[in-house]
Specification:
By secondary structure, the protein is α/β, with parallel strands linked by helices. It has helices at residues 10-22, 44-48, 63-68, 133-144, 159-170, 191-203, 300-314, 405-414, 419-423, 439-451; strands at residues 2-6, 27-32, 72-75, 77-83, 88-93, 99-103, 106-109, 113-115, 128-129, 151-155, 174-178, 206-209, 214-220, 223-229, 232-235, 238-241, 245-247, 277-279, 286-287, 294-295, 328-332, 335-341, 356-363, 377-384, 391-398. It is globular and about 70 Å long. The structure holds flavin-adenine dinucleotide.
């Protein structure tokens, strides 16, 4: 069997690894149009802040290692078109200009997404950057040590914008971050959490402005100098645009069924509308556990699960894509937070209307342990369906890293567990780590009281 995998990021990497596990005899061809395979944008902040020194190590895989495992890797080679009737792809070799056709038995597309750029006057000026992939990582890193750069303007306060803002603030730059949402991280956390994080940003020199519409990039000598918005003009010698992504699906437009936003439609086996062509990652949607509907959640964790699912099915073993809840975690200066599933403030966006929530504030470990010894306040919010108690979401934040609790909530959502199940669930107790009633027990017990 000959399998072609297109794209070498999270989805493509997992599809290749999955195929090696499922069918070690398969001939695997792996294509990447860029000049580097499997760069992890997830690791970009670690590189920008200097925790990881070498940009080339921010990757799952090297060409040499993949080839040692028998995979044929083609870098700087782009799949330009697909002939689904003859089951072949047309390859453009971007390095030497040559072209050829390659046949396939199974084709797995992990072609991903590209950053959305603002279509406003001044959009062609220099120093308007995106934040995705190795090339942007290198360019951003150079800006961090540019002594002429004083003001950085970040558009979009999702987790990518937050990472950009924090990295540049730590590099000593004056940072403004804006969003058309009124709250930063508004899709990830409710206001009890984002109020604290906005304050945390302020104390660390990052200015957040919400409900902003960018009107124009103002330039001088071809370079950006300022950003005009409906809430004033901001100095900016560098703009980082992190206002979402667009599916990179022009390759399959007219061939595969796409949704209204251009994402590839897939079934529960990751198969597209054309037999033997599978698609995974940010170019697709995922089954959203809280509602059972398909949802667009651009996460590496999702792409990896989809990649494994596509590989299994392409190899002939039936595997359904697991339902996911958009679980993510991040640090903002001293705080660590994580969230999953439905949030109270934005439930309508997830297709939910009647969710209820309980917020609990308590110490991470028994109060006899001082803050100097590592104790810290923890804020945890559980969101549930008041009609049957089903758990729909959870959010947690603390200056102590308690983020892993959210994995329990994600699993509870996936398993359709209720606050009744969670109220007395068995969690360990050791005063150095936790309390006799974990904060999730506490919140679920309060939720049960509110339902009854
Ligand atoms: P992409 O990463 O979009 O990659 C697609 C690849 O396909 C590209 O390399 C492209 O060059 C190649 N390609 C496309 N078309 C062709 C073609 N025709 N021929 C050959 N090659 C082609 N997610 C998390 O879960 N946790 C995190 O902490 C996290 N942090 C992030 C931080 C940043 C700064 C960013 C930008 C994203 C982060 N994400 C995180 C999201 C995660 O990176 C994406 O969800 C993930 O990259 C999606 O992977 P993908 O395989 O769909 O495709």
């Amino acid at each position: 069997m000959k399998v072609i995998v297109v794209g070498s990021s999270h989805g493509g990497y997992e599809a290749v690894r999955g195929m090696l596990l499922e069918n070690p005899e398969a001939e695997i061809q792996w294509y990447e149009r860029g000049d580097f395979i499997s760069f992890l944008s997830c690791g970009m902040e670690l590189y920008l802040e200097g925790t990881v020194k070498d940009v080339n190590t921010v990757a799952y895989e090297t060409v040499e290692n993949a080839e040692k495992d028998g995979v044929h890797v083609f870098v700087q080679q782009e799949i330009a078109s697909i002939d689904e009737k003859n089951k072949s792809v047309h390859v453009n070799n971007l390095a030497d200009g040559s072209e050829r056709d390659e046949s396939y038995d199974k084709l797995i597309l992990a072609i991903g997404a590209t950053p959305r750029r603002l279509d406003v006057p001044g959009k062609d000026l220099e120093n308007l950057y995106a934040m995705r992939g190795r090339n942007w990582a290198i360019k951003l890193k150079q800006k961090m040590v540019d002594p002429d750069l004083k003001h950085v303007f970040v558009i979009g306060s999702g987790y990518i914008g937050i990472e950009a803002a924090e990295a540049f603030a730590k590099a000593g730059k004056e940072v403004t971050i804006v969003d058309h949402n009124p709250r930063l991280l508004g899709n990830y956390l409710d206001s009890e959490f984002t109020d604290k994080l906005t304050q945390e940003f302020k104390e660390n020199g990052v200015n957040f402005v919400g409900s902003v519409n960018v009107a124009e990039f103002v330039g001088e000598d071809g370079k950006v100098k300022a950003v005009k918005t409906d809430q004033g003009t901001f100095d900016a010698e560098l703009v980082v645009e992190t206002a979402g992504v667009l599916p990179n699906t022009s390759l399959v437009d007219g061939l595969l069924d796409l949704d209204e936003r251009g994402r590839i439609k897939i079934d529960e086996h990751q198969e597209t509308s054309v037999e033997d062509i599978y698609a995974v990652g940010d170019a697709t949607k995922v089954p959203y556990a809280p509602t059972g509907e398909l949802s667009s959640i651009a996460l590496a964790s999702n792409a990896r699960r989809q990649g494994r699912t596509a590989a299994a099915n392409a190899a002939g073993r039936e595997l359904k894509m697991t339902a996911v809840s958009g679980s993510s975690a991040l640090s903002v200066f001293n705080y660590h937070f994580a969230s999953t599933g439905v949030k109270q403030d934005t439930q309508e966006k997830c297709g939910v209307t009647n969710a209820k929530s309980v917020l609990v504030e308590d110490w991470a470990v028994p109060p006899f342990v001082s803050e100097e010894a590592g104790n810290a306040k923890v804020y945890f919010k559980i969101t549930f369906d008041p009609t049957d108690g089903r758990i729909l979401g959870g959010q947690i934040m603390s200056t102590r890293d308690v983020t892993a609790n959210i994995n329990t909530i994600s699993f509870a959502i996936q398993q359709k567990a209720t606050v009744y199940d969670l109220a007395y669930a068995d969690f360990f107790f050791q005063p150095g780590f936790d309390r006799p009633w974990n904060i999730m027990n506490e919140a679920a017990q309060e939720a049960v009281r509110q339902i009854n």
